[in-house]
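Hi U.,

Before I forget, here's the chain from the pilot set. I'm dumping it here mostly so it's searchable later in email.
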Amino acid sequence: MDTHTQYDSVNRIKEAIPNMPKIHESADVIDELVPKRLELASILQKTLEPEELINLFAQELGRHIPFDGLTYNFAPLDIAIELGRITQHNCSYELLITEEKQGHINLHRDSQFQERELAIAENMLAGLLYPLRNTLLYQLALQSATTDPLTGVKNRTAMDTSIKREFRLANRQNSPLSFILLDLDHFKLVNDRFGHLIGDQVLREVAKVAEETIRDSDIIFRYGGEEFLILLSGTKISGATLLAERVRNNIENLQLFPDLKMRVTASMGVVSMKKDEDAESMFKRADSALYTAKNRGRNQVMIDDSV
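Structure:
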């Protein structure tokens, strides 16, 4: 590769990372950096998992320059990766490909980075860009395929996959597993009286408040029109019932469209997995408990704690 082509390659790095400091561009530095970048890109093609990708990048970068910590963030997928230590000195980069954001990365060290080290880091980042874009596109596609477009929570496809996984883990580890089955009360009347645009907003707000109420380890799914399921791994019936009551109370206290004098409530059925029980049986019991809550006046939580 001649010097002119190599120089153009370095310029493309600057285009991808426009705010980086000017690096040393002598021929000997370029001769050293380009093979490193190509080698790195080849290594990073092996995975489409963000955390594994960033770990591989950090390992390879650490072979060439010392650093104490690295952070990477990509807000659209809620990716926040932190490796090592956050220190006094850092260099920060916004990663871009033709103005398309690929996240932010920071390198941390107790001592300042030298110009030659920055040159190496920036060229290594150029080797990260396209494998990273492939990883993010793949993860965004997965998210789209498993997310309910109206409410933003997980959809029925994701629910089926997650339940199978959690049942395997619960049986293998002999740990508790619970369901909360949630159904909005008289939701058809909301649509009939106020229209589907208002009904859609109600669904979004209910999903939001439920998601904000549950723990990080819990997952909420929309599996029907106004029906949601909350999957609680490692949770017994008592803990699931307390959480269901908090969700129910927060939904009841939602202040939606005050001028319309609308009151939104939900009924819930709560169950925990029995020994040797399958998902279908557990779901039926949750549905039965929910049906009982509806029959007893709605806006309440019923449990099925049969052994």
